[in-house]
């Protein structure tokens, strides 16, 4: 059992409270749930009991908040979980929300990756795109499937377009081409793609 040591109103939502057990933050609950379950400082409860209270009373509220969060731009499951956790929802509530979002196909990491690649591949290379998608919680299998639509020839053409803009007003000497090469690498293009894109300007001799 744990002792409730704090029930504090949330700054961004006055209808919710942050619950602290044994001096550490545990979760967020609506004021209605706090009153209904007669929660107060000094009362002993388990984290499981709080999770059950939150799941039953707040799962629809959490789902609505997730939908609002999704209304601006599409999100991955990891991003939705983070959003809910930051608002004090316990993992059990987040799992309920994710499952419901999946059932409506409102969250689909595979489709998210495909859309992300379609947009990002016009501005950066596959290595950077892969790193960014991993950071958003997309699996390697989903990333591989999404990146399969971008072949090396397409990447080279994209890199050349980026390089043309970068080289405007710059001298295409050895030093300038080496900097351009490193610029493309920094954009996430592979070494082979970067060299192929630079071939139209000369040989940078970068190892």
What can you tell me about this protein's structure?
With 207 residues, the chain is an alpha+beta fold. It folds into 3 domains: 2-103, Arc Repressor Mutant, subunit A; 109-147, Arc Repressor Mutant, subunit A (Orthogonal Bundle); 152-198. The chain contains 10 helices and 4 strands. The chain has a 4-stranded antiparallel beta sheet with strand order 3-2-1-4. A hairpin with a 2-residue loop joins strand 2 (16-21) and strand 3 (24-30). Helix 5 (109-120) packs across helix 7 and helix 8 (152-166) crosses helix 10. It starts with a strand and ends in a 9-residue tail after the last helix.
Side by side, the strands of the main sheet go: 3-2-1-4
How many helices? The count is 10
Low-confidence stretches: none
Distance between the termini: 62 Å
Number of domains: 3
CATH architecture of the largest domain: Orthogonal Bundle
Q: Kindly identify the CATH topology of the largest domain.
A: Arc Repressor Mutant, subunit A
Number of strands: 4
**Estimated structural class:** alpha+beta
H and E order: EEEHEHHHHHHHHH
Task: Please state the average pLDDT score.
Answer: 90
Describe this structure in a few short sentences:
The chain has 207 residues and is α+β, with helices and mostly antiparallel strands.
Give me some keywords for this one.
207 residues; alpha+beta; Arc Repressor Mutant, subunit A; 3 domains; four-stranded antiparallel beta sheet
Write the layout of secondary structure elements.
Blueprint: E1 2-9, E2 16-21, E3 24-30, H1 31-36, E4 44-45, H2 47-72, H3 77-86, H4 91-103, H5 109-120, H6 126-135, H7 140-147, H8 152-166, H9 174-186, H10 191-198
Antiparallel strand pairs: 1-2, 1-4, 2-3
């Amino acid at each position: 059992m744990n002792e409730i040591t704090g029930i504090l109103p949330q700054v961004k939502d006055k209808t919710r409270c942050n619950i602290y057990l044994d001096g550490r933050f545990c979760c967020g609950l609506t004021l209605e749930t706090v009153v209904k379950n007669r929660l107060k400082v000094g009362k002993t409860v388990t984290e499981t009991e709080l999770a059950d209270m939150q799941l039953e009373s707040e799962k629809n509220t959490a789902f609505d908040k997730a939908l609002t969060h999704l209304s601006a731009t599409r999100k991955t499951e990891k991003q939705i979980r983070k959003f809910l956790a930051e608002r004090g929802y316990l993992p059990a509530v987040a799992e309920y929300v994710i499952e419901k979002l999946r059932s409506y196909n409102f969250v689909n990491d595979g489709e998210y990756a495909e859309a992300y690649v379609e947009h990002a591949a016009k501005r950066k290379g596959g290595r950077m795109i892969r790193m960014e998608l991993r950071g958003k919680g997309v699996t390697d299998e989903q990333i591989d499937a999404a990146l399969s639509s971008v072949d090396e020839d397409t990447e080279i053409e994209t890199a050349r377009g980026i390089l043309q803009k970068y080289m405007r007003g710059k001298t295409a000497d050895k030093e300038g081409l080496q900097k351009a090469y490193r610029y493309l690498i920094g954009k996430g293009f592979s070494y082979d793609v970067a060299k192929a894109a630079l071939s139209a300007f000369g040989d940078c001799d970068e190892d």
